[in-house]
Design brief:
The chain is of the alpha/beta class and 339 residues long. 49% of the residues lie in helices and 18% in strands. Strands 1, 2, 3, 4, 5, 6, 7, 8 and 9 form a nine-stranded mixed sheet that branches. α1 links the parallel β1 and β2.
Amino acid sequence: MKEISVVIPCRNEVLYIEECITAIYNSTDFERWNINVYIVDGMSDDGTREKIKSLIKQFDNLYLVDNKRQLTPFAFNLGIYAGGKVDYVQIIGARHIVSKNYISNCVKKLESDNDTWCVGGKIVNEYINHLGEVFSNVMATTFGMGIGNFRTLNKSGYTDTVTSPMYPYWVFEKIGFFDEDLIRNQDDDFNYRVKKAGGKIFFDADISLRYYVRGNYSGLRRQFFQYGYWKVFVNKKHQSVTTFRQLVPPLFVLYSIVFPLFYLINVKLGCLASIPLVMYLFLNVFFSSINWKGLKAFVERFTAYLILHYSYGFGYLRGIIDFLILKKVPSIKQKRLSR
């Protein structure tokens, strides 16, 4: 019988953890495997721990693991360590409600294709508040996230990374565990190492997870600033740019800072230098206008695109200054998550 460890990083998710667990235990072919579920909790103080303890009484092979460091990469590794050497490791977010066929399809794909080392599915967003819906729509577009990002995929195929992935355990023996120095982008780093070692990452459009999205502008700004900031740390670690689309926001931010100087040289030159900005604003207006729902919705989308792109770009540039120029260690401030 195949052995599977399900690892759930968690902190202050009292509203969603029961639905997350119930979906896992309702999975197709659940009885075919020996499945142990490890909720790795970052010392929640909202009633989550009490909820988990009550769930342990309802479900077999459900365990609570303490994550006193309260950070995501530690949660991943603690859960994997708790499960020991198994056949497969499935990672699921505490607000991820997996489809019935999620785990079974992941196992089937990994068993049928030795070149695939990781499998994950598509995100179906559900919204806790209005801005969460706005941000989800923005991040589901190629203009928002770039071509090839898993959030914009609709067909099964290979990609750079996926959400709620399953790995054969031997992958961790081969390339190591999650880098605990990375507060953000630890999954990007791990999956880059997967591909560098010769593995492939498969996006299965036939499996899905519902994700409860919440949002506010300050959280979005911090989230994408940190994505850009920590991406540079990953690049420095590997001495390589992991994806070329990550360079577009910082280059655009640099351009936005520099192009007004051309007006000091010559007005015509300044007008010529303004063309990329005009094109960006046109695309922003176009994508913000899709499925028109009124001026308020347009402004919210337009603002979200600006925050997403400029925050990532400024974060990336700050990472270049801190990690490549000043040779600093990551800022304590940038270890604060966006919740």
